[in-house]
Amino acid sequence: MPAHVPNAGLNRRDLLKRAGGLAALAAFTAACGGNTGRPSGGGGSGGAKVNLAQWFHQYGEAGTQQAAIKYAKAYTDANVAVQWTPGDYGSKLASGLLSSNGPDVFESQLNIGMVKSNQVVPLDDIIADVKSDFSEGDLATNTIDGKVYGIRMIVDPQVIYYRKSMLDKAGIKPPETIDDLVAAAKELTTDKVKGIFVGNDGGNALGGPALWSSGGTYLTDDKKPGFTNDRAASALGKLHQMYADKSVLLGAPTDWWDPGAINQGLVAMQWIGMWAVPGMVKALGDDLGVFAFPALDAQSKPAVYSGGWTQFVSAKSANVDAAKKFVKWLWIDQAEFQEDWCLNYGFHIPPRKSLAAKAAKLQSGVAAETVKLTTEFGHTDNPSWTPKMGTAFTDLLTNVIKKGADPSAEITKAEKTVDQELSRLFG
Known about the structure:
Layout: H1 12-21, E1 50-57, H2 64-74, E2 78-85, H3 89-96, E3 105-108, H4 112-116, H5 124-127, H6 136-140, E4 143-144, E5 147-148, E6 151-163, H7 164-169, H8 178-188, E7 194-197, H9 207-213, H10 230-244, H11 260-263, E8 267-273, H12 277-284, E9 288-291, E10 304-313, H13 320-333, H14 335-343, H15 353-357, H16 365-377, E11 378-379, H17 387-401, H18 407-426
Parallel strand pairs: 1-2, 1-3, 7-8, 10-11
Antiparallel strand pairs: 3-10, 4-5, 6-8, 6-9, 6-10
Helix pairs in contact: 1-3, 1-17, 8-10, 9-10, 17-18
């Protein structure tokens, strides 16, 4: 399982928003159990080191847990215990953030509910000196009301990788529009190979990219639904066409986040993250190509989903200052560890622009092209997009893609939910 999918059975956006959004729903749970991840003994008095608990979800890449523990052990100003959580990390974190027995430092994605519920503390002071070294998108996804609440740890672009030989044999060029993609997927489908793999749910992961490729967005700058026009409806409807053409692989042994389908020749194209590049290159060599999700038409641009994970400090920590100091040490000061984390366990883009620019492993081949596409066409999550909004949008996608429901009618339903949430949050 890739770095950012703690539970592949759920939509990625819902998963990464769950930590903040489910906290209220989990209020009946007093804590997350006796195993807090903290070392035994006291901290902070009598000259003893402070004890800090750092929470991670279970990454799929081999060596990641050992790396996280190595970083923690290298820190000498506090005792940092790493808690590695398999399974439903989001729900466990939601409960933990309600309790003083939860994490001091944790990874997630920012949700406005985390701020309104006073679950996280601003980190402007520790990022101030290097703020310009982070991309605009990575800052925006961690900023609420002008305050930065998290330090981006890892950037995971998601794009479409393809088998060059299969497209060449069919005389197909990498698609430049969604219509091109739909047509290519259909033409590449045979009795043995499907045109594309976009997830066993039929393609919900493509909802955001399709929206962006139409020129739309989840929320506008003035906090209004940005997915309600005819262009968005057209783009989402084309995802259904690809599904209806039976061009998409369904029932794969693993989901879209695993490169097994394209590596084994089950598909000609696959939507997946850059984390899988080393494994795909090992299996396919120079036969691997990449392109962004295509534009709807000449009026808009291609889209890359620039996902990832961010480090936060819990407002309920008994040692907030010590936790902030540790986060600064690890994710701002320790370039060696940041490079190791992003480049030696699958491929990811280091959030620091200065580190990404000199990352040797990202300077050639499809990795370099993926970085270029992300720089040109990347989109990050909007922290004001809540889990309830995400559920409404996922329902929209499911009904349109798999059931063939009218996109405009489904958009109207989702818009109502999003408007209600926006009114609740902003009046």
